[in-house]
Automatic annotation (TrEMBL), chains A, B, C:
Gene Ontology molecular functions: kinase activity
CDD domains xref list: THZ_kinase (cd01170)
Family: Belongs to the Thz kinase family.
Catalytic reaction(s) noted: 5-(2-hydroxyethyl)-4-methylthiazole + ATP = 4-methyl-5-(2-phosphooxyethyl)-thiazole + ADP + H(+)
InterPro entries (alphabetical): Hyethyz_kinase, Ribokinase-like
Top EC class of this enzyme: transferase
Its EC number(s): 2.7.1.50
Function statement: Catalyzes the phosphorylation of the hydroxyl group of 4-methyl-5-beta-hydroxyethylthiazole (THZ).
The UniProt record lists the keyword Metal-binding: yes
Binding site for ATP: 123, 169
Alphabetical UniProt keywords: ATP-binding, Kinase, Magnesium, Metal-binding, Nucleotide-binding, Thiamine biosynthesis, Transferase
Organism name: Komagataeibacter nataicola
Name this protein carries in UniProt: Hydroxyethylthiazole kinase
Pathway: Cofactor biosynthesis; thiamine diphosphate biosynthesis; 4-methyl-5-(2-phosphoethyl)-thiazole from 5-(2-hydroxyethyl)-4-methylthiazole: step 1/1
Length: 264, 264, 264
């Protein structure tokens, strides 16, 4: 177990120098922030299921992220098409099971069908990870009602069962590998939970991290490094912020500053 | 009639302490700001019509807001399902008849079907309220072309006919009850009309206010208090703002500051 | 050929005094910024394909913009209905062929069907214009992989063939008329490419410019002036910005300042 924040320098430099094309199926509440986070980090995002995009962009992207709440503006069919195209081309993809366990059986079933399709990474809050693992936790809409401590054991079961990295966001983020390894990322700032889409955008940035990490064995480190980057940007942004509005603006600025794309 | 701004302290404290789950069906232009406004005020929003959400979240939320322009990204069927679920569970809901009266008969008919389903509150600009009341006013797209003075008499007729509180936004906001009572909220700032979705987000915040106001007889005061909160946050934000961009950011900050969730 | 930035004063004053109603079918990633850009410039935007809107708003708007990536949240049928309504009422419209040439044949075909319907202006990046003109350029998602120098000759062919003004965004923007005239707009700032939707919002502002330019022979000047306005606002915003987040906020502020709607 590793309690120190991992070094986010190497992954930052790879994202900036490779500018990976990252494709996302996400919800319209989070889409703009997600695109701006990826652009600030140096990646090249495209979002949405225009005709023909899921199959084509799923196959040609460096990484894909699928945010279940994207079902508010895309069909399950389109999402599964993007996932299948990514898998056929060995494009790593991230599943974000937003609002899993909030009491909507039809919706949860779609997420389970996605999860059965070999995501490289599953990221979510404690309630979502517990619900996907089959635990009894229930969410309230998109908010977690469970704690990280409750979620980690079930997250480890889920990682092992699906052969995926499981990343749980909370006061401390826990990134779990299928073989039982774990990295804990401290820091960050509570205001991340008051900016809509901040968690969703992290899913996109993880897909960018996967896109520049060709060796599957290095994914645990890559995902942990992206979480550490998020935490560091949040800390930079929180200092001068006067509330969640200026924090969100400053968070995007901080990602670009950390990337060397902007000056402090 | 009451010309002073109502005290927004009590409703602020209730929203913050109860953190109500508020469900919204709104349009993608306004969705992100709406979610951020609700989070800054201390509520827990979920937005959009993913499979199964309208019936489940409509029933389980503390309050629901339905923004007619949400028809750009949800079906009338989904909106009516959420409304019916809310009504069946006695969840109070807010109708925002965006662009009513702009000359689109098919669209206006859907709004009339919603309005016939017992909303607790109807909020809109002068043109929209006049059009829904059956007056001759016409809007231009989503912009009002009528004045508050023209709209108030028709708004009172509408409130009485539907048994709903009617809130009309303008240079002064007028909140009208079915029994003829009226509260006028002064203040605010003209820049609210230059930030897309600011009116739509107010609908969400009113739903949060209803969620923490169990007694129907206290709803007039609650809706007026939410309008006063909006006006006060706008005034706080306008001082240091250099235009509508920084005003929007500062407005979200100001809501959090008024909630005690951020420092000035 | 004209290398100096055109004067954006006259078009600014006309937009502000006439506040044209501008209707847009665009994507949810760019919609909020697009609406805020138009509001900051003094126009009155409505966005999206609610039932009945495409035919009604297409006919009644002063200008229409159709962003092909809007196909992530509207049908081709709705987009073509808005275009046909605009044409029937002689409302000028702007086509933005986002992601044209990125390797999705089905999607590109829809854009070609739009382009065959007499747009007044086509605006895009170098890859998109080359692909629409029939060149071999390929994009990578929504990012250009071609240079302006490669795109201008094909853009001139496209302008002549379709009888449309073709505006190509890049380090220098080139605005081309069907009769071979050209205006080059220098300036602007590279951060425009790191703010999602900034190019898409420019399409909306061009539609506002067309709405206040009744004489077709003055459209080249009007489109160039809108590009110059964009460049000037970007330069104003870049100075105090600390990254793409504060740049985007400052860009909206700067448009309002240039319009006299806000103080510097």
């Amino acid at each position: 177990m590793q309690h120190d924040s991992p070094d986010c320098g190497p992954i930052l430099r790879r994202i900036r120098s490779q500018a990976p094309f990252v494709y996302g199926l996400t919800n319209y509440v989070a889409a703009t922030l997600s695109a701006n986070v990826l652009l600030a980090a140096g990646a090249a995002p495209a979002i949405g299921a225009a005709p023909g995009w899921p199959a084509a962009f799923g196959a040609h992207a460096g990484g894909l992220w699928v945010n279940a709440a994207g079902l508010i503006n895309a069909t399950a069919h389109d999402m599964l098409a993007a996932i299948d195209a990514a898998n056929a081309s060995e494009v790593p993809w991230v599943l974000d099971p937003v609002a899993m366990g909030a009491g909507v059986a039809e919706y949860d079933d779609i997420i389970r069908r996605m999860a059965a399709r070999r995501p490289a990474v599953i990221r979510g809050n404690a309630s979502e990870i517990m619900a996907l693992a089959g635990g009894a936790a229930t969410a309230r809409g998109v908010e977690t009602t469970a704690s990280i401590a409750q979620a980690v054991p079930l997250g480890q079961v889920l990682a092992h069962r699906l052969g995926a990295i499981v990343a749980i966001s909370g006061p401390e983020d826990h990134v779990l590998s299928p073989d039982g390894a774990q990295v804990i990322i401290s820091g960050g700032h509570a205001w991340l939970t008051t900016v809509t889409g901040a968690g969703c955008a992290l899913g996109g940035l993880i897909a960018a991290g996967l896109a520049v990490t060709p060796t599957p064995g290095e994914r645990l480190t890559a995902v942990a490094a992206v979480h550490a980057l998020y935490a560091r940007a949040a800390e930079k942004a929180a200092g001068p912020a006067r509330g969640p509005g200026s924090f969100a603006t400053g968070f995007v600025d901080a990602l670009a500053q950390l990337q060397g794309l902007a000056h402090d």
